[in-house]
Amino acid sequence: MNLLLLLDGLSRAQNLSSVARQLGMSQPMASAGLRKLRDFFGDPLFLSTGRGMRPTPFAESIADAVRTVLSTVDQQILRKPQFVPETSERIFTVTTSDIGVLIFIPPVLQRIRAMAPLAQLRCVPTSHEHLEDALESGEIDLAIGYFPDLVGPNIVTQDLFDHPFTCIVRRDHPVIGNTLSLEQFLAAEHIVVNQQGRSQEIFERRVRELKLQRRVVLHLPHFMSVPHMVAASDMIATVPFSLGAWYAESGLKLLPPPVSIPLIELKQHWHRRMHNEPAVRWLQSIVAEELRDRDPALAMSVDYAKSRARAAKPADAARPKTTRTTLSGLRKPIRSRRNPSGD
Q1: Sequence-ordered list of residues with C-beta below 8 angstroms from that of 165, at least 6 positions apart, any chain
Q2: pTM of the full structure
Q3: 120-123, strands of its sheet edge to edge
Q4: DSSP structure string for 125-163
Q5: Tens digits of per-residue pLDDT, 259-271?
Q6: Which helix (H) or strand (E) holds 252?
């Protein structure tokens, strides 16, 4: 490469001393390099004249090709790739839960459309067994939500926010009023969502720890139909608060669970292999700016728009911040399982 740079410099400047200074080498080193080029090509390449070092016909014939090679190396190898949101047509792919599509995606999509109008956002379901491989291959850019099994040594994780559970019943329930006692909770007919590796396992595990005996009458594979079935019956369901808040105007009331339940720790995950990929870094920053320390359940309140306006900051493609403040005021860093420092 150094010899090609010398050859290109001589083609342009036709002065060995000047080229040596430009390349940061001594005059003897430049002269030695020219000798190596002459030996390799079997051609004098440049001859000293009263008008400088004039190229031979052979040197002239390869000058454009040498320039093209150097330009290619500079543009495609040495120069770091850039992501330009304004002109990008990239399809970003994320995986999240059905509640995540309802709650997380709207603010993220709105931001993407404003900053990258030609880009697309695609949400796909992915099995827990396949998720790490999909992140590594680039099939999926980010996993957003609750993924407790995503703990591989090459997975990088950023905390977003912690989220509570709520119990939902129909507004005119004949037994349950504006409070929910443990006795009422246990006596009610329950809907249970069975999603392996999802947030509902937190609540179900807590029920088992407390040895509570409920009357479960319906098992469902996902959350989306739960609010409608609760609103049309006397059944009760315990769901992430954001789902209940979203459907609160559909004949439901939200009641605090009668037992303490751990919060749902929601995060975004990506593969270490994609840690410095500009487009993925940009998407990470968008998700962090829209969701970090901003529980989407706030979107159901009248003060949400005002609070977001106050917190809004100019967008850039910088990596998401490495710490956040949780509801308890603790600082938590971006981390991977292999390197807790997040480096």
Answers
A1: 202, 203, 238, 239, 240, 241, 257, 261, 264
A2: 0.67
A3: 120-123, 91-95, 142-145, 264-271, 155-163, 335-336
A4: ---HHHHHHHHHHTS-SEEEE--TT---TTEEEEEEEEE
A5: 999 999 999 999 9
A6: strand 252-255
